Amino acid sequence: MATNFQLSSDEKAALLSSLEQRFGENLSRHEELQWSEVRDRLEANPKKLWSLHEMEQTGGEPDVVGRDTETGEYIFCDCAAESPVGRRSCCYDRAALESRRANPPDTTAVDLATAMGIELLTEDQYRELQQHGPFDTKTSSWLKTPDAVRKLGGALFGDHRFGREFVYHNGAQSYYAARGFRGMLRV
């Protein structure tokens, strides 16, 4: 993962093209928004564009799912059908990773999200995303976990089974090949 937060002109053009195509193919996610306004905001925020590139490169298929009425920010979220493949097999956070005695994963959901400049979805945001879904019918995604749960050693994750979304708990140190995380970015 690059750390200079800059995309080459070719990377930028390819990303904007992919985002525009996805935006056009999924108008129900953002019915009252215009791509030209989203593009202008992206071009004015190269670091956010870099974060979207990282979301795309790890299989997230980011798309606009709304706009904050107070700040005017566009809200992007990973809209891949399953938890992004390039972000799976990670435990929840650094403390969980350091608590593992054997077979630690390479990274954590929180560390990777921070490095990418994105945030894990909260339980409420995950449920809102499922209104555009279903998502995670074969995988699951770590969710931003409340401190009270985390202090007890747990972490939350969600998935979609049997026609509805579920939010569960697991030990934060656990990791599975089919569990990753979804991110959100405000631009």
TrEMBL record:
It comes from the Bacteria. Pfam families: DUF4256. This is DUF4256 domain-containing protein. It comes from Neolewinella aquimaris.
